[in-house]
Specification:
Elements: H1 7-30, E1 44-50, E2 54-58, H2 63-82, H3 97-117, H4 124-128, H5 131-144, H6 146-149, H7 173-182, E3 184-188, H8 197-210, H9 217-230, H10 232-235, H11 261-270, E4 272-276, H12 285-298
Antiparallel strand pairs: 1-2, 3-4
Length: about 325
């Protein structure tokens, strides 16, 4: 399938490709002295002389050079007839690099299917205890996830730490599997136009106080009052968040974007909009299960599927998704 959004670009590419061949043939034609009566190896005196004995000559193009370029033009015409190269024309062979890539991917998948077959139905907790699966999972993570979460899976501003056992949507194997498969879209609405900067600053002071951070105590009470008006619908009266909504826990001193007063104010006023891309279609179902087990294991070193990781039940995304959490 062509990537062109309009036929105009297809015609443009076809004209440029054809014009290149025509121009090359025209150039060869203008240098055709070897086809005429004059000997091919006889230079022409241009009449320019320097220092009395240095004469500029116009040497004819060597015959082998001309023949080589004629053959290249013939090859180019044949190529453009057989393969796509003239815009939207697909060629008589119907070759497509996308189809070729698909065939290679299918062949690769067929070759590796026996390796992943044993993990298709294995519980994630059991996969997490399998040494070979953990090695595969680490490589899958480094190839597909480390760009955002870091090679140590400890995240970066805007990209959650996957090792601290603190989760935005929940840290169960099934939830992580769903996150990796379908992705997540976390949105914190912007409150600009609804509250002013002073109120946002008061709320930021109150939120920071919930994690034991330094605040202006004189503003915490008004911040709590504003929080109760604008924020409890998602974060709850106790500010411990709501995993069903993807609203983070604001009491555990875990921050996706940072805990500074200014950062929290920016989050409140401008909101946040982050997205975790879905991996279905990129990874096979077995690869996603292995990757799920590897991610889950980072906060469950003992491999116990029932024990909460690090005693945490709360907020930050253990998956690559965004939240309103500063």
């Amino acid at each position: 399938m062509s990537d062109f959004t309009t036929p105009v670009w297809g015609y443009f590419v076809g004209i440029v490709a054809s014009a290149g061949i025509v121009w090359c043939l025209w150039l060869l034609y203008t240098q055709r002295r070897w086809l005429g009566k004059a000997p091919a190896n006889q230079p022409v005196d241009t009449g320019h002389v320097w220092d009395g004995d240095l004469t500029e000559l116009n040497n004819p193009v060597p015959r082998w050079w001309t023949v080589m370029y004629l053959l290249m033009c013939v090859f180019a015409v044949g190529y453009l007839v057989l393969f796509p190269g003239l815009g939207q024309y697909t060629g008589t062979l119907g070759y497509s690099s996308a189809d070729d890539l698909r065939r290679q991917q299918d062949a690769q998948e067929a070759a590796t299917r026996p390796l992943y077959a044993r993990y298709e139905a294995m519980p994630v907790a059991d996969i997490a205890r399998d040494t070979r699966a953990q090695e595969i999972g680490q490589r899958l993570f480094l190839n597909n996830c480390a760009q955002c979460h870091g090679s140590d899976a400890k995240g970066a501003p805007g990209f959650p730490n996957l090792t601290d056992g603190d989760w935005l949507y929940g840290g169960s194997p099934d939830t992580i599997l769903q996150t990796i498969t379908h992705g997540r879209h976390g949105v914190m609405p912007a409150w600009t136009g609804v509250i002013d900067a002073r109120t946002a600053s008061d709320i930021a002071d109150y939120v920071r106080s919930l994690s034991g951070l330094g605040v202006d105590r004189s503003r915490v009470f008004s911040g709590k009052d504003a929080f109760g008006t604008y924020c409890v619908a998602c974060h709850g009266v106790d500010a411990k968040g709501n995993q069903a909504l993807g609203a983070p826990n604001l009491t555990d001193n875990v921050w996706l974007y940072g805990s500074s007063q200014r950062t929290i104010e920016v989050t409140i006023l401008n909101g946040r909009d982050n997205r975790m891309p879905a991996q279905e279609g990129v990874l096979t179902s077995a690869q996603i299960r292995i990757l799920t087990a590897w991610v889950w294991r980072q906060s469950h070193a003992d491999g116990d599927a029932d024990a909460p990781a690090n005693g945490a039940t709360g907020a930050n995304a253990g998956n690559a998704l965004a939240s309103g959490k500063p």
